[in-house]
Write a structure and sequence with these properties.
By secondary structure, this protein is of the alpha+beta class. It is 34% helix and 34% strand. A hairpin with a 5-residue loop joins strand 16 and strand 17.
Length: 386
């Protein structure tokens, strides 16, 4: 038997079933077993109550994380060749029949009008419950007091069986009740709504009034429409991150990557996705600028030959980076001449003239020629402004 329960309730359900399992083992060594599936998203109806007209009505569908509990409990109603296939509760208003195996549903009507008789002790008196027991050759109605003596199955194990099934059925029914407090949200929807909100008001931090996160929550609750443009941009951003996941080293974006891969998320992750479009936009802009820079420098050629003293014009110059080594700090300057050739100068001194970009030409000695990211660079030394 398989029951679907709310994933948020899994720990409590497993704890309860484990407790029942231990108790049931006292009456049957194999008792029953159960397994729990991985969580998945399920759309379920959410109902509200009209207190004026005293009726319940479906408000909308909501998405929640659920998991399946599969129970194997035949050991509780079987022993050797004997199997208890049904329980009959003899009430004043008529019999209440519980069939333990769907294969025997066709016998329901034949049990509905049975008297409280035991075919083992051959007595007919007031009984609250009797059981239908089947073996290879016959089906008999047995009183609860005679059940263990007749087939070796303890009544208590059947009671545990009923408790297990009832408990799981109640958990399954309660999904709609618990579900409203355990909603999950589509990643693509949240990103699209964040894009729309940022487009209208810019990104606003979560501690500010009418924050982006708050407004996205409102839009989700109100089921506000999302433009096709925002949906398309959301998919573009998501696909961009998935495509470039190996190039991500920023801690925030690494968290976003893990969240996005889930496709559906809990409310606690919405804040990440609200800033996600801003962060991705910056990444794309930075990549575009780098590509543009590479295109501009693609015309670069080597100047002079190694150890040759050269003089060259200066179109632009800037400090690209610096690093500390064994001999102290090394500054790395990138210089572009009027012919779009790229020169790189490693020096131990911070050159204010180069940083100020006031020079028109320089002289230096060629140290080496190298290819960096597809760009021809002339590495120089002993450079001086003219």
């Amino acid at each position: 038997m398989i029951f679907t329960i709310l994933e948020a309730r899994k720990e409590e359900v497993v704890k309860k079933l484990s407790s029942l399992q231990k108790k049931a083992e006292k009456y049957n060594n194999s008792a029953f077993t159960f397994s729990v599936s991985e969580a998945y998203v399920k759309s379920i109806p959410y109902y509200k109550i009209d207190y004026i007209n005293h009726v319940q009505y479906k408000d909308k569908n909501i998405n929640v994380f659920v998991c399946d509990i599969e129970i194997t409990e035949n050991a509780l109603v079987k022993y050797g060749n004997y199997e208890v296939i049904a329980k009959i509760e003899h009430a004043e208003t008529g019999n209440i029949v519980t069939i333990f195996n769907e294969e025997n549903n066709g016998l329901f009507n034949s049990f509905l009008h049975k008297k409280p008789y035991c075919e083992h002790c051959k007595t007919k008196h007031v009984r609250k419950n009797t059981f239908i027991v089947k073996n290879e050759s016959e089906v008999k109605q047995i009183g609860s007091a005679c059940l263990k003596d007749y087939c070796g199955i303890d009544v208590q194990s059947i009671l545990y069986r009923n408790e297990i099934i009832s408990f799981c059925e109640e958990e399954e029914k309660a999904i709609s009740s618990y579900g409203i407090n355990n909603l999950v949200y589509s990643v693509s929807e949240i990103v699209a709504r964040a894009i729309e909100e940022i487009k209208k008001h810019g990104y606003r931090k979560s501690d500010s009034e009418n924050s982006t996160k708050t407004e996205v929550y409102k839009a989700v609750r109100n089921e506000a429409e999302i433009s096709e443009e925002s949906k398309a941009k959301a998919e573009k951003y998501i696909n961009y991150i998935l495509k470039n996941e190996n190039d991500i080293n920023d801690s925030f974006m690494l968290n976003c990557l893990s969240i996005i891969k889930q496709k559906y998320i809990k409310a606690s992750y919405i804040g990440y996705l609200c800033y996600f479009p801003v962060s991705v936009s910056k990444m794309i802009q930075k990549e575009t600028e780098k590509a543009q820079e590479r295109n501009e420098k693609s015309a670069s050629n080597y100047i002079g030959s190694v150890n040759e003293k050269i003089t060259f014009s200066v179109k632009s110059a800037c400090l690209k980076t610096s690093f500390t080594g064994y001999y102290g700090i090394t500054f790395v300057y990138e210089i572009i001449d009027n012919n779009e050739n790229v020169l790189v100068w490693y020096t131990s001194k911070s050159n204010n003239e180069v940083k100020a970009e006031t020079i028109k030409s320089m002289k230096a000695t060629v140290k080496e020629h190298k290819l960096y990211n597809g760009i021809k660079q002339t590495v120089i030394k002993n450079a001086k402004a003219i």
